[in-house]
Amino acid sequence: TQLLEQSPQFLSIQEGENLTVYCNSSSVFSSLQWYRQEPGEGPVLLVTVVTGGEVKKLKRLTFQFGDARKDSSLHITAAQPGDTGLYLCAGGDDYKLSFGAGTTVTVRA
Amino acid sequence: NAGVTQTPKFQVLKTGQSMTLQCAQDMNHEYMSWYRQDPGMGLRLIHYSVGAGITDQGEVPNGYNVSRSTTEDFPLRLLSAAPSQTSVYFCASSYAYSSGSTYEQYFGPGTRLTVT
To answer: How far off is chain B from A46, nearest CA to CA, in Å?
Structure first.
């Protein structure tokens, strides 16, 4: 099993602030995905990154895949209460993904 | 499209009881998986299937059985429930993305199981 470590475990910020969540591994992944999960629901895919050094933007969310394809980060600009949730990274070389434990993000109004 | 559906949403079992968690998808995805989610441990793979009639074990398969008789359905059976199986269970389906080595997962809403 490829281990993915996410940091921080919890993050609480005020509306309008920026935040960054990290996902690190000692293994190389062919791709890495980010999911967001809201209470009582299943995770929902936000983005997939496949190329080392790749940067993808989704409105106020910016995702980066490390050059060595072992790590990734998620940056949220001007966070809003709707960004509150559990953010999970997942990696793998086939359909059997390994998931990190997640970062719980709370954005206070 | 309903996507991935799971039933029941909540279930309470006594130790030793058996039950089946239902999962269905209407996206014609080849791959389906079952995960359990426990606090601080992320999602752990229980069993998966790469197509009808083909299943295999994931990271934490003990105490669970699966079968895949159709593309759409992938039920998870708890043979003899134990308190350690108290968890939230998610079913997911996926397809090969881009070059064929990336698989994006579509999750159901989950079943919250408590074993007393």
So the answer is: 10
